[in-house]
Design brief:
Blueprint (H helix, E strand, L loop, with lengths): L2 H4 L4 H22 L19 E9 L2 E9 L2 E9 L11 E5 L5 E6 L5 E5 L5 E6 L3 E6 L7 H14 L2 E6 L8 H11 L9 E3 L6 H8 L3 E5 L6 H8 L26 E4 L5 E4 L1 H4 L8 H7 L24 H7 L5 H16 L1
Parallel strand pairs: 3-5, 8-9, 8-11, 9-10, 11-13
Antiparallel strand pairs: 1-2, 1-4, 2-3, 4-5, 6-7, 12-13
Helix pairs in contact: 3-8, 3-10
Bound molecules: guanosine-5'-triphosphate and zinc ion.
Amino acid sequence: MPAMAKRKLSRQQAWRIEKIRAERARRAARSLWGQVPSGPDPTGDIPATEEREGVITAHYGTQVEVETDTGGGQRQSARCHLRANLDGMVTGDRVVFCPGEPMGVVVAQLPRTTELRRPDAYGKLKAIAANIDQIAVVIAPLPTPHANLLDRYLVAAQETGARPLIVVNKCDLLADPALAAPLEDMLKVYPPLGYPVIRCSIHSGLAELEDALRACTSVFVGQSGVGKTSLLNALLPGAAPQRTGALSEGSGKGTHTTTTSGLFHLPGGGHLIDSPGIREFGLGHLTRHAVESGFREFHPYLGRCRFRDCRHQSEPGCALLAAVADGLIPAQRLASYRHIIGSLDAS
Ligand SMILES: Nc1nc2c(ncn2[C@@H]2O[C@H](COP(=O)(O)OP(=O)(O)OP(=O)(O)O)[C@@H](O)[C@H]2O)c(=O)[nH]1
Ligand SMILES: [Zn+2]
């Protein structure tokens, strides 16, 4: 701990230091993401301490890789231990750390803007990534896309606060009308609902995807085989899978374990967080309330059904059924809703 922390501080001094720390963290985070903070730097008159702010870019059990922005687009990485009370840290977390040789130590976690969570083996929801701005749900003509699965990912995305993006990969296969027709039919409901749709393949048309990923931190989620790893490798050759591991305490040399997740910087700008756990995000348990609120076009009708416990199946006076009949809600989305609720009831 720096000597400064041992001094007895008045409440006002402690409050001021807290404010300065928060401002420093905000500036560090914004400049790390390539945004230039505006206004004079109110922390400039404060003497530097050994503590720095950074972002967790990889996680290896009790060790993490923490990256700091050293200015001019340069970044520096430091391997750190986690303090024992900081076991819930994930890739994307912004932290305060003390650099050291061969390893530094993470001393504090800064507040998260968003959090991706999924149930662990015991059903308890655990964070798997933090501070994600955008969730790119990847689909493809093959494996066959299912509206209820896409909607499930969109519902899960809605809960996190990150903005959703639909990425249609393998568009080279759309030359086959038997693959194109059902996909286009399924997709047409999403742009009017405000979900952006991008079409690409690993062979061509990546510029639009690069644009959508610029200046933010994203994750790719979606069914196995839609091409998430291939897209990551097309955007950043050699990025996945990453095979560095924990450093041994004594020698500081690498051992061979696969990292559980990693944050990648894209050459075109923006960052991607990837891990097997993140790819399965959205397939965990959802509550009935989360499912209802995850269908954004349902919002004006929720609470307006005749029966308070309406399940929106065939009940008289159901506001959602009436909205479907009036063409205000796509029938495909109500069908998805029922499918997802049916899977909750069955589990
Ligand atoms: N035709 C075509 N094939 C593609 C494209 N992108 C990926 N593929 C193929 O699709 C298959 C699955 O790709 P992956 O990148 O492993 O899919 P994934 O979504 O990462 O799968 P998981 O790791 O299981 O989640 C591979 O055989 C890829 O070569 C594309 O744009 N066009
Ligand atoms: Zn109803």
